[in-house]
Design brief:
This protein has twelve helices and 17 strands. The chain has helices at about 15-25, 45-50, 70-75, 100-105, 115-130, 155-165, 205-215, 265-275, 365-380, 420-440, 495-515, 515-520; strands at about 5-10, 30, 60-65, 170, 220, 225-230, 240-245, 250-260, 300-305, 320-325, 340-345, 380-385, 395-400, 410-415, 440-445, 450, 480.
């Protein structure tokens, strides 16, 4: 007996969007969320309390030369990682979709920018984006932002002067954060606590954007429902049901006409690999051997500088105030293929990622105390988000270890490409020079790190070389779709949430328009 038209695994940015869209189209939708429900009033402006929003599920093992910081990057519960994301909503550039053709490395997408442009345009109105299209001279074609840009503070002004003195352009950073009241949600308070979640609703997260629409459409969400496997029909060509465990360990299954995995870039491959059966011996939807492969995080490096004057660094947004993409497109004269985006003047707090203490990991005790006393009012920062090239060796695989429900743990193996490391060195040299031009008394670079988790269920035209088609439909299982940044063949040099959301909106339209074919028994 079919219990739902659609089962969606995960309630993050893409899962919630798809649930709202398909529910509004008259489908009976059930969302399975591994973590708890959330409320805005549960979000406290504190580095300690912010950790409550981060991953609290089974441990994930990491390996490789540049292991990822999985618990920080992933979310736990309603809204997923988009509940504590920094809301930097950039568009990928046109060349990113044809990277192999243009630059001779990486992959081409099975779609082009023009296929996503109408979804970018529509989403920025629905979600609410602030920015300045005219100043953002690097942005591909599209409609103006529905809100004016966010305000700037002294930190951004100082760094903008440094960029200008070196001949670089800056523009307001496009953000899914209200600069003015918008659709019943207030303007941002500019207190810089985005990482801890936004209790006012000024920052766009799945709860405030899609929560009411999901409720109105009758979408059912089952919390603390940790998915283990997708079960198929006897032929193996169709998904039949989803197996999951409740908080107490009770195993259940739910039947569906169509299944969407939107469980983030790590858990989605974990579920697929654990769903191996007689017809799918290497894992579900894995005839290509690409499930879990080409896992591709960004490289990133933060530059810090101390100024004589106060920088108002506690004000603004965690993601930053300004941007520069003058070096986004590859230039052979620079000696590397990759490009990068500067995210300038992020709000700084005492601890955690990007905090004052982490600005100088070499200091301890009294020296750290002295540094933080000055840095609390005089420090400035910016970070380069760096394109990384996909590698087959970077992968999400299963281990022999199992969680409390008997599901194998995931291992994330990641080493940044040689080109990404060269790009980082170029960005560091440029960033230090910009701080010098801005008048900093001292400037330094933090260690190279990774940000965002993408790839692992790559879309493509060739079933032998990819996991899904251009709509996220798996090549091997006709009623199984995947959503989220795991689909991305190349990752560009921008935060992925806007693109992942646009892809999900396009997938929703495709499913609604072809429901009879996908839902056929």
């Amino acid at each position: 007996m079919t219990e739902a038209d659609v089962v969606i695994v995960g309630s993050g940015a893409t899962g919630s969007l798809l649930a709202a869209r398909l529910g509004a189209a008259g489908r009976k939708v059930v969302v399975l969320e591994g973590g708890p429900p959330r409320k805005l009033e549960q979000m406290y402006s504190s580095s300690i309390w912010s950790r409550d929003l981060k991953w609290a599920g089974p441990p994930t093992r990491v390996a490789g030369e540049n292991p990822v910081t999985f618990p920080f990057e992933a979310g736990w519960g309603q809204g997923g990682s988009a509940l504590h994301h920094y809301a930097c909503w950039f568009r990928l550039h046109e060349e990113d979709f044809k990277f192999a053709t243009v630059h001779g490395t990486g992959f081409d997408w099975p779609i082009e920018y023009r296929d996503l442009q109408p979804y970018y345009d529509a989403l920025q109105k629905e979600v609410g984006l602030s920015g300045d299209k005219d100043q953002e001279i690097w942005r591909p074609p599209g409609e103006p932002y529905p809100m004016p840009p966010q305000p700037g503070f002294r930190q951004a002004q100082l760094l903008a002067e440094g960029f200008a003195k070196r001949g670089f352009k800056t523009a307001p950073l496009p953000m899914a954060i209200n600069s003015v009241p918008y659709k019943g949600r207030p303007a941002c308070l500019q207190d810089g606590w985005c990482d801890a979640g936004c209790p006012t609703g000024a920052l766009a997260n799945p709860i405030v954007i899609f929560g009411e629409a999901m409720k109105k459409a009758g979408v059912e969400t089952r919390y603390n429902a940790f998915v283990s496997r997708i079960l198929t029909t006897p032929s193996g060509r169709r998904a039949k049901s989803v197996e999951y465990f409740e908080a107490g360990g009770t195993k259940k299954t739910i039947n569906a006409k169509l299944v969407i995995l939107a469980a983030f870039a790590v858990q989605t491959p974990r579920i697929l690999l654990n769903s191996a059966n007689d017809h799918h011996s290497k894992g579900l939807a894995n005839s290509s051997g690409r499930v879990g492969r080409y896992f591709t995080p960004h490289a990133a490096v933060s530059i810090y500088g101390m100024f004589s004057e106060e920088t108002e660094n506690h004000m603004g947004r965690t993601g930053g105030q300004l941007m520069c993409q003058d070096d986004y497109s590859p230039d052979p004269q620079r000696g590397f293929v990759g490009g990068y985006t500067w995210r300038i003047a992020g709000a700084l707090k005492l601890a955690d990622l990007g905090g004052l203490a982490n600005a100088r990991v070499d200091l301890f005790g009294e020296r750290l105390k002295t540094f933080m006393e000055k840095a609390s009012k005089h420090l400035a920062t910016m970070s380069a988000l760096i394109a990384n090239q996909p590698s087959f060796e970077n992968a999400i695989t299963l281990t022999a270890e199992k969680d409390k429900n008997g599901i194998p743990l995931a291992r994330l193996t990641n080493s940044l490409s040689a080109d990404a490391k060269k790009t980082a060195q170029g960005a560091i040299k440029q960033g230090l020079d910009i701080f010098k031009a801005a008048g900093a008394d001292d400037a330094w670079a933090a260690p190279l790190h990774t940000e965002h988790m993408m790839g692992g269920t790559m879309m493509g035209e060739d079933p032998a070389q990819s996991v899904t088609d251009g709509y996220g439909r798996t090549h091997d299982v006709e009623n199984l779709f995947i959503a989220g940044p795991g689909l991305m063949p190349t990752v560009g040099a921008v935060n992925p949430t806007f693109t992942a959301s646009a892809l999900a909106a396009r997938t929703a339209d495709h499913i609604v328009g072809n429901w009879a074919a996908f839902a056929a028994n």
